[in-house]
Amino acid sequence: MIDWDVAVNTGIRLVRPGPQVDLADARQAVSQLRELSEEARGHVREFTGMDPLEPAGPAVIVDRPGWIRANVDGFRTVLEPILDRLGAERAAAGTAGALTTAVGSRVTGAQLGAVLSYLAGRVLGQYELFLPPDPDGNAPAGRLTLVAPNIVQAERELDVDPRDFRLWVCLHEETHRMQFSSTPWLRGYVQEQMQDLLLSSEMDAAAFLDRLRAAGEAVAEVVRGGEGSLIQAFQSEAQGEVMDRITAVMTLAEGHGDYVMDAVGPEVVPSVATIRRRFQRRREGANRIDRIIRQLLGLDLKMKQYEEGAVFVRKVVAQVGMEDFNKVWESPETLPTMAEIRDPESWIARVVGPGAPAREA
């Protein structure tokens, strides 16, 4: 259903080149990012009180094509078994011929590559949860990846101290690594939700055509300045319930990352206040075409996740302290729902206990 080679080739062909950096500066940036990722890990561990359960090396530093390849590998690891199953079911039902399937897979691959080419120029870093199995067939631990040209371009545009900015980015991404490496069930939970999202989709032709029409309406609505996204357009009612659970855990993870990267303090990142102010202004200052693309791809929703999640973390830590906040990582049952993220006191009452005293973070 997805031609992965087409996705990679399309993404790499369409992605814009990074900023002009001479060889010496490029090598220095790569070396410093590796060092700062390890430094950030220590700060995150000390601040959050979380302990990783698996060893972690320095971050992997990539360029934009490298980020595209890594993400196609991740998508393939998670999606291919499910797509193969769905494809076999459709073939058994006689709903897809070989030629139709082949053409459709190339079209879908090209679409995925086009989306990744856009994102590859904007992502600063990520914690890769799902990697291809090693030669023995074992699923490796996640990997922290930083996109060097995007970090350099952002620090130039913001006119901020390069070392401070690079450490600030590393603090956010190392927080994600800590979330998943210290919580053994979380990776499996996220993968299970993603699988449920796909398996709850309606694959018949009539439903697919309805979704295409809805997608067209969503594009027109966004261009007119309204609300909407392609994610919502292709989402069934059953998928909406699963998407709520995925949104809740990702809002928590992103908000926690944003909270930690700012709260570690000016002793570590002296210009953190300036960086945050200018970075937020950059997030909000996109041109109209960029805003349309961001909304259609659901990236504006991701920005909202940063904000709502950070408010939740900040309020819970302020009221009950970091130790009790960390109960969010104990099990799927202690994760907040989206309703609880918007009403932190309800999560505190359910998980920490009623009448929890306020404590210093």
From TrEMBL:
One matching Pfam family, short form? Answer: Zincin_2
Q: Which Gene3D superfamilies match?
A: Zincin-like metallopeptidase, N-terminal domain (1.20.150.30)
Q: Which GO terms describe its molecular function?
A: metallopeptidase activity
Please give the superkingdom of this protein's source: Bacteria
> What are the protein's UniProt keywords?
Hydrolase, Metalloprotease, Protease
Descriptive protein name: Zinc-dependent metalloprotease
- Organism encoding this protein: Nocardiopsis suaedae
